[in-house]
Specification:
Elements (H helix, E strand, L loop, with lengths): L3 H14 L4 H19 L4 H11 L3 H12 L11 H10 L4 H10 L4 H11 L4 H5 L3 H19 L7 H30 L8
Helix pairs in contact: 1-10, 2-3, 2-4, 2-10, 7-9, 9-10
Length: 196
Amino acid sequence: MIRQEDFAALHLELSVKAKNGLDFIAAATLLWAGIAVLWALPGSAAQHSLYTFMASGLMLPSARLLSGVFGTTWTLKHNPLQPLGLWLNFAQLFYFPFLVFMYLRHPEYFIMAYGIITGAHFFPYAWFYRTPAFVVAAGVVAAGSLALGMYLAPTQQYLIPAFISGSLVLLGVWLWVDYRAKARLTAAQPAAVAVA
């Protein structure tokens, strides 16, 4: 059985070594900015939805590339919580049937639905990295996507991914500040992350 202190140390180690998932947030920021540009171009909602769906395949390779830029660690073999991060990310794939339905039946609402799913999937990362930033981002992105989707004209749907990208910039800043505070804590108490 893991003691409460050891469990907290495992979370802290994940947060510091993975830098709160900043590589994924940066990749998502760039991806959603590109999607905003795509939706601003001429074309039907169905075309934009299809290209958006295809562009989502760039997320994992982009995060992997940015991992090198940010110096994040993807695998901590001794930390039993580490694999959960990737599983939490893959969990949103089970929402994709809903996106397929939106694409086939209501493509004009596809980007709103995708934004809601993106926002909602942040929620468990608040527990994983022990930071409230993900709770706030989950609510802001999901509710903001819904509100914009309900009130924007069809020609203004590009504002949804632009809003998401901007929200992710703010999330990234908050996560960076949180990471720096935790890194200072571990530097002051190196034993805090040295879990056997």
